[in-house]
Amino acid sequence: MKPKVGRYSGYLRPFTYAFDWAVINVLAYFLLPDEFISLYFSFFISFCWFIIAINTDFYEVYRFTKVVSIFNKIVKQFSLFTIICFAFSGFYSKTTASVEILHYIVTSVVVITFFKLSIFYLLRKYRTLFGGNYRRVVIIGNGKSVPLLEEFFNNNPDYGYKLEHSFDLIEDKKQQIESCLEYVQTQNIDEIYCSLHDLANTYVNQIIDFSDNNLKVLKFLPDNNEIFTKNLKFEYYGYIPVASLRNIPLDESLNKFVKRSFDILFSLFVIIGLLSWLTPIIGLLIKLESKGPIFFKQKRNGLNYEEFDCYKFRSMRPNDFANSKQVSKNDPRITRLGSFLRKTSLDELPQFFNVLLGDMSVVGPRPHMISETERFAQNVDKFMVRHFVKPGITGLAQTHGFRGEVETDKDIIYRVKYDIFYLENWSLLLDLKIIFLTVINAVKGEEKAY
């Protein structure tokens, strides 16, 4: 499965955060009185800036966002930021600096607004002129919103949506839906827009299951009031309401930034504080017990089903089945040292390099061997949903007893349920809780840690 097209926000968003942070700090240095120039003030305004941004959705600007909405976010952001700056001045400044603060705020508004709108419009021009950063879409259904959405996609190429086909479902709905799903799969379609008008729940569930199991984004066109009673996330394409099937917190740019920042800091802490001296010791012990490399490298599937090399300390003797046969209890391939490493989860520590490289996260759904992933994808409902987020060194399922060997269908079914709950309810506090439970379980030892 190919990765999704046009997902450049992973590169643009961090650059935007860094630019805004630099602007508010550099302008403070040049425009505010000397008593404001301190690490304490820099930390204070930086922290407040991003806390405000979380609450105002300042960085939640998408290809379908209206310009008036962008200006609304800017007004909210800087109104609160202005109050914060004056509050700091009132508490910690000995002199009145109202004029300087206003000058600082106005200049920051101009610079950041210009940069924000420039990126927004440059991306639109890029999509129009070069056809890049686009998503291939289909529409299925015949509700009143369908022709409006078709017109929107066709008349607004700068939004980056390419309408490939519409399936009207006027005759033989079952055959039309099957044709649509086959078309989506063979033509590498990114997103499905489904009108709920006159569509039975059986067909809706069929489309939902297909989207989940094939990593396709599914959105609904609500032509009646029933859908408004459900817990769905609404967006507007122009003035057309569109409802997302699943609200994934890590789709929001600021949450991505928070999680990625935590991953980098935590992985650096482990690499420098633990692996820097533990790796030579474990490496020497591995070499003394058996021939072969210190590290074991295996292909795994990550975000959007992309393959990456997952690293571990080698815990088995070199064999021809390492990439095809799952480890089982009392597996003769495991060395004595390897048994200890696996029991204490120390064999997983090199994956912090995967985290630092961006292939994995500290917390997330555990990645499986390629052969296992292909088998589960065919046999386990919604297994592919796990690939909407980065895989993790540890996860919610692992802290609830579903780690290691998949012995029964229950093991993988509950693992998928916990993983989906995690991606739909992510928070930094949940990550910290999972890390804490993982450490506790590693110290206590787990029954399935073999």
Domain module count: 3
Query: Structural class of the helix and strand makeup?
Result: alpha/beta
Widest sheet, order of strands = 2-1-3-4-6-5
Give the H and E element order.
HHHHEHEHEHEEEHEEHHEHEHH
How many strand elements?
10
SS field, number of helical segments: 13
Overall residue-averaged pLDDT value = 85
Large-scale geometry: flat
The unreliable regions are 1-8, 225-230
Q: How far apart are the termini? A: 31 Å
Largest sheet: 6 strands, mixed
Q: How much helicity do the residues have?
A: 40-55%
The proportion of residues in beta strands is 5-15%
Description:
Belongs to the bacterial sugar transferase family. It holds the Pfam family CoA_binding_3. InterPro entries: Bact_transf (IPR003362), EPS_sugar_tfrase (IPR017475), Undecaprenyl-P_gluc_Ptfrase (IPR017473). It comes from Flavobacterium stagni. Its main location: membrane. The two termini are 31 Å apart. The chain is 52% helix and 12% strand. It folds into 3 domains: 9-130, no CATH class; 135-247, 3-Layer(aba) Sandwich (Rossmann fold), CATH 3.40.50; 253-444, no CATH class. The model is unreliable at 1-8 and 225-230 (pLDDT under 50). α1 packs across α2, α1 (9-31) packs antiparallel against α4 (98-130) and α2 packs antiparallel against α3. By secondary structure, the chain is α/β, with parallel strands linked by helices. The chain has a 6-stranded mixed β-sheet. A two-stranded antiparallel sheet has the order 7-8. Strands 9-10 form a two-stranded parallel sheet.
